[in-house]
Design brief:
alpha/beta, binds zinc ion, TIM Barrel, 12 strands, 377 residues, eight-stranded parallel beta sheet
Length: 377
């Protein structure tokens, strides 16, 4: 599938290791993507993927935005004051020249692995308050497709990934929605983009209600392939929704997620990444049905038919870059090497402490080491 050249910012890219730089940037170049936002998640071995993202941004300062993950060590070491620690973490991220915060903490199996409090619990309050006050943009992954809780409807590939949540040991999706809605009600200034359409692509009326209630809330188009099946089931309704909420929808793909979640050795896979671009752009730009056939992760190996909604050019521009620029800034923020070096040293130390606290995990300081090498030079 070929697309017209357009200015595009991919607002949702994963970058699991600094060695992936050439592959990722070549892919972005080939696909005609102008700028990208790396969203950072916690990492068991290296604690944080922020150093990797900062290294990428240092090489491409005008092309790369960074959404830093929160340092999760307070959840283990000082759970009672985790909210204050997270608020401080936001300050450090901002001082380093990070453009926003990414939270994967609402992804259900992450929540099971880490001692994450309820999002509306008092312990989080200082963090939410600080985020709302500073206007720091947040990309927040909350829940997963609703069928992942349903033994009858969970897809085989999701089960294989360990994403079947219906056995009673995982948090319920409605409980998580309620916690997050409580947060938005208390902190209406919070500037948030919910990844993957807030997993409400099958409940557009409900999502519209939230968007109407919370003017600083956005959603991104990052697959979740189920989103595109859901949209394709009612393309006219989907098109009306996209026209009505054209200022609140951001483009994203999850390129690099496979290397992060499944297969570390895979790196940034060309075929899988192009499939992500094709399904999102195909849906937004094509008129009527289109077929995609790609092997692997995104589609569970099947050929699939989707319905395009053929949006007008001015709406596409909003979704492809204008909404992101309003959300996170027209250009990535400049980096501050001195603060980055201090944070790199702190991370080296914390990685070693965490490796001792959690038997079985080896502390891998390679990214922090590389960060210090680059930024103290
Ligand atoms: Zn993602």
């Amino acid at each position: 599938m070929t697309f017209m050249n357009r200015k595009i910012i991919d607002g949702h890219v994963h970058y699991a290791h600094f060695s992936y730089e050439p592959g990722l940037m070549a892919l972005m170049e080939d696909a005609g993507i102008d700028k990208l936002a790396v969203v950072c998640t916690p990492d068991q071995q290296r604690l944080s993927l922020v150093p990797d993202a900062l290294l990428l941004k240092a090489k491409h300062p005008h092309k790369v935005y960074v959404f830093g993950g929160l340092d999760i060590t307070p959840l283990f070491m000082a759970p009672g004051i985790a909210g204050e620690a997270f608020a401080h973490c936001v300050d450090v991220l901002m001082e380093m020249g990070v453009d926003g915060v990414k939270m994967i903490e609402g992804k259900v199996q992450i929540r099971k692995q880490l001692p994450i409090p309820d999002f509306d619990a008092p312990v989080y309050a200082p963090y939410w308050e600080h985020m709302a006050e500073t206007g720091m943009p947040l990309i927040f992954h909350v829940n997963d497709p609703e069928e992942f809780w349903d033994p009858e409807r969970v897809p085989d590939w999701a089960r294989e990934m360990g994403w079947f949540y219906g056995d009673g040991t995982y948090i319920n999706n409605e409980a998580q929605y309620q916690q997050v809605i409580n947060v938005l009600e208390r902190y209406p200034g919070l500037r948030v983009t919910f990844a993957h359409f807030f997993f409400l692509s099958a409940q557009l009326d409900r999502l519209a209600g939230y968007l109407d209630r919370f003017p600083n809330m956005h959603v991104d188009l990052t697959p979740g392939i189920e989103m595109y099946h859901n949209f394709s089931r009612q393309p006219e309704k989907a098109r009306d929704f996209f026209l009505k909420y054209q200022d609140r929808i951001l483009y994203g793909t999850d390129i690099g997620a496979r290397a992060l979640l499944g297969d570390q050795a895979a790196g940034i896979e060309q075929e899988e990444s192009l499939a992500r671009i094709e399904v999102v752009r195909g849906f937004l730009e094509n008129e009527g049905p289109f077929t995609l056939a790609h092997e692997g992760f995104l589609f569970g190996g099947q050929e699939a038919v989707f319905q395009g909604i053929h949006l007008p050019g001015d709406v596409l521009d909003k979704i492809y870059f204008q909404n992101f620029e309003r959300f996170a800034g027209a250009a990535p923020k400049p980096l501050n090497p001195q603060v980055i070096v201090e944070e790199g040293q702190r991370l080296q130390m914390m990685i070693n402490v965490m490796a001792e606290l959690q038997p079985g995990t080896s502390g891998d300081t390679s990214s922090a080491d590389e960060l210090l090498r680059v930024f103290s030079g």
